[in-house]
Structures are given as C-alpha cells and as structure tokens.
Amino acid sequence: MWAAESVTRSRALPGGTVGGRIATTQNPAAASCRCAASAAAAVVAVDALFNLRSSVETLVTCALEGERLGAGSAHADNIAPAICGGFVLVRRPSPPDIVRLPVPAGLTAVVVHPELEIETARARAMLGQSVPLSDAIRQWANLGALVDGLHRGDFDQISRSLEDSIAEPRRALLLPGLAAIKRAAVAAGALGCSLSGSGPSLFALCRDRASAHRIGAAMASVVAAEIGGASQTYVSSIAPRGAHVVETCAT
C-alpha cells in the first residue's frame, strides 16, 4: 500500500500506515500492469477516503511510487491512462506532464489474453539500452501520425500508424504465432494489432463494437492454434474516465 501512503504523505496528513486489500485477477507475471492497476486503485481510493481532491499530477506521482516498489521501476505509461482514462501521451513522467488525447467515436478495443506466461522483467531486458536511429525516426513518425489521426478521427491514418518498430520486433519471440495473429486481426477488419505492453496479451483497435467481436474471435482462433490453452477475449470501448470510486461501504 506504499502508493496509498504516498497520498497521505503528499498532503501532510497525520502519521500512520494505510491498510487495505486489493483483489486482482491479473497474472502475477505481468508485474507492471498489475502494479499499475493496483497503485491507481489505491491512490484514488485513499484520496476519496480522506476527501483530498488531489490533482491528477499528484495521483500519478503517488501511484508511481507504488509501481516502483512493486515492479522495480516507475513507468507512467500504465499509471497515467489507468488514472486519467482514454488515450494519454506521457511527455514527462516526473513531474508528470500528461497530455490527454481525444477518442474518436466508435473506436473499440479488443484484448486477447493467451494462456501463456511472460515475465515483465525479461521482456524489458530484451529492449536493450539503445535504438537504431532509423527505428527511432520511424517510431516518431508513426506516433505523430497516430496523434493527428486521433484528433481528426481518421481511422485510415490511425491504421497506418499502428506500427511498433522498437519494442515488438525485439519481443516477438516471446509469443508464438504473433505474426499470424496480427494477420488474422487485420484480415478480419482491425485497424491494427500488437502486443499489449510486454505481453502476453494482444490488443487490436477496431472501428466499432460489431467488428470488434468478429476480430476478437479471429484472433482467439489463431491463438488456440499457435499457443493452445484457453484464452480470454475482452471487447470494450475506450473508457473516457479512469479509476474512480464505484461504491462505498456503509459506516
């Protein structure tokens, strides 16, 4: 609960510890995503408990402390969208400079989670410490085009921009059949498909919910053939709101 205690310390509340229990169904190997979701939930809950009305920047900063201890490093790429919702661009993690991006109408996400374990630490290590200039230039160009596509609601441009030239090529060996799964998603109508973070989950962006269900089924079929096991498929709109209190216990 280090993230939660960071909230109370940031507002100079009386000393003491904050205790609680967070239930999660996420795979323990996915340390980064699990810690980010748990840290975001903790800071939002404690902020509401003490009626602090902390800024987004404060919540992100405090949640990063929890992820740093839980996952070994603090990356706002998971924390920021968990707290803010929607699409965000993390210009700078500390102090947080979070840029919110628009979500085009209809845009829907599919996530397929294979029965496969990938250790986040190993996946991060595969990235190395340097990136060839040509790969960096291609990635920057795609990022700029993606941001512009989101602002203009241009699905064709979003589709052309969903290409990862840095992380995915280095991590592809961790997920059997990745290329075939991506081909199946695009053939079924996806704007694009890639690894979600370090994996093993894969995501696809779709034009609408109807096509998203079809795309999810196509991806799951190839996952079953290439990886085996029982995968899980999730279809969701892009939530405009991040972590928030759903209900409170009676006192």
CATH architecture of the largest domain: 2-Layer Sandwich
CATH class of the largest domain reads Alpha Beta
N-C termini distance: 22 Å
Number of domains: 2
Write out the strand line-up for the largest beta sheet, numbering strands in chain order.
Answer: 4-5-3-6
> Sheet with the most strands?
4 strands, antiparallel
Approximately how much beta-strand content do the residues carry? 5-15%
CATH topology of the largest domain: Alpha-Beta Plaits
**CATH H level, superfamily name of the largest domain:** GHMP kinase, C-terminal domain
> Which stretches of 5+ consecutive residues score pLDDT under 50?
27-32
Average of the residue pLDDT scores: 86
The count of strands amounts to 6
Coarse morphology: globular
Query: If helices are DSSP runs of H or I spanning 4 or more residues, what is the number of helices?
Result: 10
Q: Which series of helices and strands comes N to C? A: HHHHEEEHHHHHEEHE
Helicity range of the residues? 40-55%
Which class best fits the helix and strand makeup? alpha+beta
Radius of gyration: 19 Å
